[in-house]
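Renewal narrative, Specific Aim 1. Our central claim is that a sequence can be written position by position from structural information alone. The example that follows is taken directly from our test logs and has not been curated for this report. It begins with the structure tokens describing the chain, in the order in which they were read.
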């Protein structure tokens, strides 16, 4: 992404920015290629909740996704840190693409040898993290078999700074096992080296070959996906926070508005 795109993010649904969106649809039609709309899940399609199993995608958003998935000129994808079983459960929509765990599932999956090494690394990480979590009230572990997450949403705010500093020590140890850390909202994901949402989005683009790509995400873990897009694409930050994305929406409710606008352009 060029430096000219690092100015303050524009509201995607505002009049001036929406003209850019309309222009991108026209370019795709002229090229005879699809528009790809890829979306993070938590904080983008679904509001953030205290526990992953309490998440719900609003019914209106699901209806828009179902309608959008039927449009021949459009491909819709969910790209998430969650495991594939979660995306299948919480996004029961036929016709959408699902890429889980930073592309480890539904993307360019590792070969069997590396897969075994990743699973062994996750087991080792869990052994290191469990004593830490047991000693830190409010911390809990989500073992997704190919990645492992440390959640600290329930930790008292005054203790979070010290907690994150302590987790940096775990991150250094994780590097020796071939893992790096991706930051979400009050969660740290330990992810195999070489995998992030940028890589996952590039894989999706090779598969779909779109004329234009939209990507919506709400955390620092989505910045690599923003950086993977070109000058005529649409990286969209959901909510507040520093970002290199040139466009922004306020939250999942505006993501839903965008989906409704797509469906209204049925052709």
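The sequence written for that structure reads:
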């Amino acid at each position: 992404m060029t430096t000219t795109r690092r100015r303050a993010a524009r509201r995607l649904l505002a009049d001036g920015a929406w003209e850019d969106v309309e222009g991108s649809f026209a370019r795709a039609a002229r090229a005879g290629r699809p528009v790809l709309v890829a979306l993070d899940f938590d904080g983008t399609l679904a509001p953030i909740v205290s526990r992953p199993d309490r998440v719900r995608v609003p019914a209106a958003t699901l209806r828009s996704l179902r309608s959008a998935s039927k449009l021949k000129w459009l491909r819709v994808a969910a790209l998430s840190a969650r495991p594939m079983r979660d995306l299948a459960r919480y996004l029961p929509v036929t016709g959408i693409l699902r890429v889980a765990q930073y592309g480890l599932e539904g993307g360019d999956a590792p070969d069997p040898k590396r897969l075994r090494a990743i699973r062994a690394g996750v087991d080792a990480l869990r052994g290191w993290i469990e004593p830490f979590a047991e000693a830190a009230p409010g911390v809990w572990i989500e073992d997704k078999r190919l990645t492992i997450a440390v959640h600290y949403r329930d930790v008292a705010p005054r203790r979070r700074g010290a907690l994150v500093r302590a987790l940096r020590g775990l991150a250094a140890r994780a590097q020796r096992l071939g893992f790096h850390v991706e930051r979400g909202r009050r969660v740290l994901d330990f992810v195999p080296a070489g995998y992030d949402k940028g890589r996952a989005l590039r894989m999706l683009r090779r598969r779909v070959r779109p004329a234009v790509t939209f990507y919506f995400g709400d955390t620092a873990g989505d910045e690599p996906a923003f950086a993977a897009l070109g000058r005529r694409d649409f990286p969209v930050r959901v909510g507040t926070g520093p970002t290199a994305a040139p466009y922004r929406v306020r939250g999942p409710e505006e993501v839903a508005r965008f989906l409704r606008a797509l469906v209204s352009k049925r052709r």
